[in-house]
Automatic annotation (TrEMBL):
PANTHER family per UniProt: AFG1-LIKE ATPASE, ATPASE N2B
Keywords: ATP-binding, Cell cycle, Cell division, Nucleotide-binding
Domain of life the protein comes from: Bacteria
Coiled-coil intervals: none
A GO-annotated cellular component: cytoplasm
GO molecular function: ATP binding; ATP hydrolysis activity
Originating species: Devosia crocina
A biological process from GO: cell division
InterPro entries for this protein: ATPase_AFG1-like (IPR005654), P-loop_NTPase (IPR027417)
Pfam families: AFG1_ATPase
Protein name: Cell division protein ZapE
């Protein structure tokens, strides 16, 4: 019997499995049953079982060091359900010391920590170890599970850092769960000095189980096939259309409130489900949010519904600037946008101060409703330079 099946079978009846959660969504009609995804739940259930069993127990268990648990590196093409399975795992994991973040956001935090350390008095010492400095607080926090979405390596800065970084994290007992479009052996392919990156690939394969998700259907693309993703008119006129589109992109799930963490604060998400989030224009564009916040949102969801987008005249100048930054962030990331507008796109902006930027925004909005854009997967995106607050 495969190890992952034995692990799943050993889960107590009081501990729901990832397979159970998946099949419940299938039963409700939110998902279509997919053999590859069902197979994927077995690997997550193995980790869930081992992590739960390795938790310190007893009165003095607090002082025990948890046993290390081998993680998972889930590979698959765009839209095959990798992120959805990770979501189910993360929600079911009964451990507080866990974190879920996009790979590039995590690495940005690491680089920021290294930069800050090097500017400090300790960091100027010849024997200073910046990697030790950034991993120490992570391990001191007791982090057990690190979930990184869209793991892939393109630049030499990350490539040269990863082996030392994860050596310390793995040694400290952190279990890595990662999703990616490429197998470990293809990471940083043809990169500069790639031979120096090979030890990390070997470490990654030792510390995680590499599983390929061989699903034939691109479910993300299927959600939007043949759909008109924009509606025009008042809330009363387009509300029913927005509700119908929301249920389509969430598989019939109404969703529930959530938050997106950004630079030490929390951005409220009125409703989220299965990789989609539903906002009103005022939730994002009439609050003191900036580029980094919008980039975080774009990396947190593959689909965004934005309702009640008004005509933006001089009285909404600040909101218009944020709207421009929001659309830039979603477009650069390849996020799918479903939106309700009060007026046609070419009438949205009437403020001379943002006229030029709005021309680009309208052009992007036009492209974002095209079948070609909706058929593409998410892509890496560097934050744009502008900010708003």
């Amino acid at each position: 019997m495969p190890r992952c099946k034995r692990a799943a079978d050993s889960l107590s009846s009081s501990q729901p499995t990832i397979r159970d959660a998946y099949l419940e969504l299938v039963q409700r009609g939110a998902l279509s049953s997919d053999p590859a995804q069902i197979e994927g739940t077995r690997h997550f259930d193995r980790i869930l079982t081992e992590l739960t069993a390795s938790q310190p127990k007893g009165l003095f268990g607090f002082f025990d060091k948890p046993k290390p648990v081998r993680g998972l590196y889930l590979v698959g093409e765009v839209g095959r359900g990798k992120t959805m399975l990770m979501d189910l795992f993360y929600a079911a994991l009964p451990i507080k010391q866990k974190r879920r973040v996009h790979f590039h956001e995590f690495m940005d935090e690491v680089h920021a920590g290294i930069s800050a350390f090097r500017k400090s008095a300790r960091g100027r010492n010849e024997d200073a170890d910046p990697v030790e400095a950034v991993t120490r607080p992570i391990l001191k926090s007791g982090l057990r599970v690190l979930c990184l979405d869209e793991f892939h390596v393109h630049d030499i800065t990350n490539a040269m850092l990863l082996d030392r970084l994860f050596e310390k994290l793995f040694t400290g007992g952190v279990t890595l769960i990662a999703t990616s479009n490429v197998v470990p052996d293809q990471l940083y392919k043809d990169g500069l000095n790639r031979q120096l990156f090979l030890p990390f690939i070997a470490r990654l394969k030792r510390e995680t189980e590499v599983v390929e998700l061989h699903s034939e259907q691109d479910y993300r693309r299927l959600k939007f096939a043949g759909q008109q993703v924009y509606a025009f008119g008042s809330r009363a006129e387009v509300g029913a259309t927005m509700d119908r589109l929301w249920l389509r992109i969430t598989g019939g799930e109404e969703g529930e409130p959530g938050v997106v963490e950004s630079i030490g604060r929390q951005i409220a998400v009125p409703r989220q489900a299965l990789g989609a989030a539903r906002f009103a224009f005022s939730d994002l564009c009439e609050r003191p949010l900036g580029t980094r916040d919008f980039v975080r949102i774009a990396h947190s969801f593959d689909s965004i519904m934005l309702e009640d987008v008004p005509k933006m005249d001089r009285t909404r100048s600040d909101a218009a600037k944020r709207f421009i930054l929001l659309i830039d962030s979603l477009y650069d990331r390849g996020v799918k946008l479903v939106a309700g507008f009060a007026v046609p796109l070419d009438q949205l902006g009437a403020d001379d101060r943002t006229a030029f930027e709005f021309q680009r925004t309208v052009s992007r909005l036009t492209e974002m409703q095209s079948e070609e854009y909706l058929a593409k997967g998410l892509r890496d995106a560097a934050p744009v330079a502008e900010t708003a607050s």
